[in-house]
């Protein structure tokens, strides 16, 4: 075994041990990691395939026609003044809005008419009704002074409308719907034509007259109600909506003109709202403005409104980046796939109790956090780098166009934030399946909410920016916002550092939010981990604090509560042990490995139930070289005592010291010299037995040949050395082999105190013998606390035994003393023919008048004979005499077993407790 003089492993030794274990573990799961890292390549190939498909076919599955331009009119210098651009498909020219438009067509300003014409109604209201009625009469002409030979300018006086006033201002087509002229009164057969110009071509188009009526309402609320009732329905009279427009002249007078305008857009096609507004709103405002000018300046005053025209534009090519189709939601989902991977890994260690197992064998929080965080950061970085590299190679603009340093900073901050969040969230879950389901729900919900809710908030300029930043405190939305900004800039020339100063660019605030949130959540994650794992609030501010070893003599034993009903009932041996502990606490130095003084654990009652006293004032002292056995029925308090001693739970009151170190404040130091064999095997399924021992040996500061020798000796001591067993994965071991490996782990590295919770459970007789020999050999220079339900095991291994009942220690001594003290009877058994049963009973009464019969069946009888009433020689003499009187088939006399002692003590303690 290892040299007992070895000191505790340093920070870097522990980190090295964990790193080696993690590397070995990942080698066993190499294909899982390969699949994870190759996932971005698969995604990029999918995007590339979609891009290729989009570049080769249009939405109808046909080849895209080529965009060409034709000159319609040249100037004297031979330059083209007017041209039309479109697609050339199958020998035909088709005007297209995707082509470059240097000179968009001029379109007449139109109003959208209701589907039911004629007539149409214009609603009016305002503070001054007389003024409103005058303005209404001035809006529409009573006649049309049109001269078609003078060209298009004269039609500015014609108030025209259409059922579909939404022509594409870039495609050059004529208006397909019939046009209507809105007048106060239509004459019979009042149909005429107007010249509609499309580029250099002027085409006459028929116009029909529609009567326009004005209806005064008392308030804007009535106007709104009337419009609402008619929206794609019928009005209050059951007729189809006839409303053309509505005007609220508010407080207008001869010096003030103030108006609200409602315009009709009820029947627009999907995506044409902006197009309708571009055509209708100017004409609606022009009608009201001209009416007020005629009122204030005279009938001849007017604003001439000839046409509306779109802005020139460059060629609109279909975006080669599939991000334009998929949006930020797609890559948000791709990157968020890392979160469930990290979370499930952390929760797995928690579910299998592997983290606390490592901690109890000396692994500090610092090395654990450093190596675990570094591993997750490494995997996440490989994942993101693969995504960025493959995306850039394949021409995905969101990766290839934007500045690489900006992308690196953004993704670097996010993966750090994501790892920190995973550490916090992992403390909430205790089951891997539950954590996985919740994680993937969060992944897909984040993408959907980002695409259908958060993006609208980003694009809404009226929404306060401070609330945008508040929403980005959710890490998934900050990721979505960053990808959204990268995607927006990818459609142009890409994002550069100078662009971050632009007020419309949100990347700067995203980076700030993620940086501050990462630091804050990392701090919270560490503190929460301390609370969960140790029950104490040890935060990074206190990492540099040194907890000095307390002089045990300076600790005063807490006063014993006399009102505790168990105190007067303490047996002599228990009281003697308590006095011994009191004396040891007063000494400046002691050789005792473990000292417990009035240790108590109370679980608060719930739902009106009383408090549960798991451990009631336990006081014991264990020297080195002693194996102390804890016996007791289920629920007696043995596991609660072990949990307090290994740091899983905090004592309610009392003190306990391991080699002078307080279990409440110095557990981190105690862990370096402690070994634990838990009741359930806590092993990594893919690591071999040898790899387990190498890892835990390094945690105990074993190195080089000393480590190799310790591992081999541990394997030999529990019979796991031969047959290639050490190099087989622990997941292939039988239950007994796993149990023996757990015992070997608890003993490696020369721990000074070892806790074994039912170590021989599930072992066959041969394996149990190997285990017992290992424990006997191991207890020479260390204290071992062992719980067991096997009386044979307790009698063979334990130097002293303590029987626990209902949380209190009932007796403490070695097995022989307990049998002498609590087993004061011999058990006499004799088998004869049934007719001689009375003779056997008389024989026993002669030996001991107070003997008690405990069993009788078909001639076999069993009696308990008080030891002080009989001598063994007298028993043999009486039996020999009986054999001469009647046939004796079998007989025997045995001393009380440890099992009998245990049953008697437990029965009496429970009876006393009930009374």
Automatic annotation (TrEMBL):
The chain crosses the membrane at residues 36-54, 322-348, 368-396, 408-429, 435-454. It holds the Pfam family ABC_tran. GO terms for molecular function: ABC-type transporter activity; ATP binding; ATP hydrolysis activity; lipid transporter activity. SMART domains: AAA. Keywords: ATP-binding, Membrane, Nucleotide-binding, Transmembrane, Transmembrane helix. GO terms for cellular component: membrane. It is a multi-pass membrane protein. Residues 594-831 form the ABC transporter domain. It comes from the Eukaryota. It is found in: Membrane. Belongs to the ABC transporter superfamily. ABCA family. CPR flippase (TC 3.A.1.211) subfamily. This is ABC transporter A family protein.
């Amino acid at each position: 075994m290892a040299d007992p003089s070895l000191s505790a492993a340093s920070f870097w030794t522990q980190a090295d041990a964990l790193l080696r274990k993690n590397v070995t573990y990942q080698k066993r799961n190499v294909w899982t990691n390969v699949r994870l890292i190759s996932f971005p390549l698969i995604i990029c190939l999918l995007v590339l395939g979609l891009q290729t498909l989009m570049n080769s076919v249009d939405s109808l599955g046909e080849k895209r026609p080529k965009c060409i331009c034709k000159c319609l009119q040249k100037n004297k210098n031979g330059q083209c003044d007017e041209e039309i651009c479109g697609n050339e498909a199958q020998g035909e020219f088709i005007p297209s809005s995707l082509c470059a438009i240097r000179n968009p067509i001029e379109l007449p300003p139109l109003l959208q008419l209701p589907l039911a014409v004629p007539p149409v109604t214009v609603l009016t209201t305002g503070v001054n009704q007389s003024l409103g009625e005058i303005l209404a009469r001035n809006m529409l002409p009573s006649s049309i002074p049109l001269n078609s030979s003078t060209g298009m300018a004269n039609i500015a006086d014609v108030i025209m409308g259409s059922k579909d006033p939404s022509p594409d201002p870039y495609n050059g087509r004529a208006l397909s719907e019939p046009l209507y002229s809105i007048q106060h009164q239509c004459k019979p057969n009042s149909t005429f034509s107007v010249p509609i110009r499309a580029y250099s071509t002027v085409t006459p188009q028929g116009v029909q007259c529609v009567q326009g009526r004005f209806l005064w309402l008392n308030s804007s609320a009535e106007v709104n109600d009337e419009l609402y009732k008619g929206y794609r329905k019928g009005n209050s009279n059951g007729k189809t909506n006839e409303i053309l427009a509505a005007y609220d002249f508010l407080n207008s007078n001869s010096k003030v003109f103030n108006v609200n305008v409602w315009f009709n857009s009820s029947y627009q096609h999907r995506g044409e709202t902006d197009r309708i507004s571009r055509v209708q709103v100017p004409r609606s405002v022009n009608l009201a403005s001209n009416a007020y000018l005629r009122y204030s300046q005279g009938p001849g005053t007017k604003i001439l409104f000839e046409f509306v025209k779109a802005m020139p534009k460059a060629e609109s090519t279909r975006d080669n980046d599939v991000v334009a189709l998929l949006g930020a939601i797609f890559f948000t989902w791709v990157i968020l796939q890392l979160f469930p991977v990290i979370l499930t890994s952390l929760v797995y260690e928690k579910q299998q109790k592997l983290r606390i197992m490592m901690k109890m064998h000396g692994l500090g929080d610092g090395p654990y956090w450093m190596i675990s965080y570094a591993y997750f950061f490494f995997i996440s970085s490989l994942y993101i780098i693969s995504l960025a590299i493959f995306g850039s190679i394949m021409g995905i603009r969101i990766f290839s166009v934007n500045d690489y340093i900006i992308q690196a900073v953004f993704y670097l901050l996010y993966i750090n934030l994501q790892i920190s969040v995973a550490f916090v969230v992992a403390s909430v879950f205790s089951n891997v399946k539950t954590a996985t389901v919740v994680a993937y729900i969060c992944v897909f919900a984040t993408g959907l909410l980002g695409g259908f809710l958060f993006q609208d908030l980003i694009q809404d300029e009226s929404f306060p920016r401070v609330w945008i930043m508040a929403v980005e405190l959710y890490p998934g939305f900050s990721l979505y916002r960053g990808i959204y900004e990268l995607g927006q800039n990818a459609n142009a020339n890409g994002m550069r550092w100078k662009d971050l100063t632009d007020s419309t660019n949100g990347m700067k605030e995203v980076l700030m939010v993620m940086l501050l949130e990462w630091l804050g959540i990392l701090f919270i994650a560490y503190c929460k981990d301390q609370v969960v794992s140790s029950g104490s609030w040890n935060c990074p501010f206190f990492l540099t604090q040194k907890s000095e070893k307390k002089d045990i003599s300076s600790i005063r034993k807490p006063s014993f509560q006399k009102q505790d009903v168990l105190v007067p009932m303490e047996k002599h041996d228990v009281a003697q042990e308590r006095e011994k502990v009191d004396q040891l606490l007063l000494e400046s130095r002691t050789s005792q490995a473990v000292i417990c003084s009035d240790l108590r654990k109370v679980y608060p009652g719930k739902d009106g139930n009383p408090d549960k006293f798991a451990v009631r004032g336990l006081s014991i002292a264990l020297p080195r070289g002693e194996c102390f056995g804890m016996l007791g029925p289920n629920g007696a308090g043995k596991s609660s005592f072990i949990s307090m001693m290994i740091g899983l739970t905090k004592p309610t009151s009392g003190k306990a010291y391991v080699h002078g170190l307080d279990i409440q404040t110095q557990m981190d130091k105690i862990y370096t010299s402690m070994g634990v064999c838990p009741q359930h095997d806590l092993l990594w399924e893919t690591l071999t037995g040898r790899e387990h021992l190498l890892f835990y040996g390094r945690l105990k500061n074993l190195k080089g040949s000393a480590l190799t020798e310790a591992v081999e000796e541990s394997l030999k001591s529990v019979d796991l050395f031969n047959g290639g067993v050490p190099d087989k994965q622990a997941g292939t071991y039988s239950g007994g082999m796993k149990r023996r490996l757990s015992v070997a782990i608890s003993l490696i590295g020369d721990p000074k105190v070892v806790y074994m919770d039912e170590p021989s459970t599930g072992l066959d007789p041969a394996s149990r013998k190997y285990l017992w020999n290992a424990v006997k050999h191991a207890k020479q220079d260390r204290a071992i606390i062992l719980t067991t339900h096997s009386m044979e095991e307790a009698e063979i291994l334990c130097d002293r035994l303590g029987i626990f009942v209902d949380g209190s220690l009932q007796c403490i001594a070695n097995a022989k003393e307990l049998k002498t003290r609590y087993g004061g009877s011999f058990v006499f058994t004799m088998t004869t023919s049934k007719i001689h049963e009375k003779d056997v009973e008389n024989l026993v009464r002669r030996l001991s008048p107070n003997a008690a019969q405990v069993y009788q069946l078909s001639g076999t009888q069993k009696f308990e004979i008080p030891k002080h009433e009989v001598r063994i020689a007298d028993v043999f003499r009486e039996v020999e005499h009986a054999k001469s009187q009647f046939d004796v088939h079998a007989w025997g006399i045995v001393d009380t077993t440890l099992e009998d002692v245990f049953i008697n003590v437990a029965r009496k303690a429970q009876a006393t407790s009930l009374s």
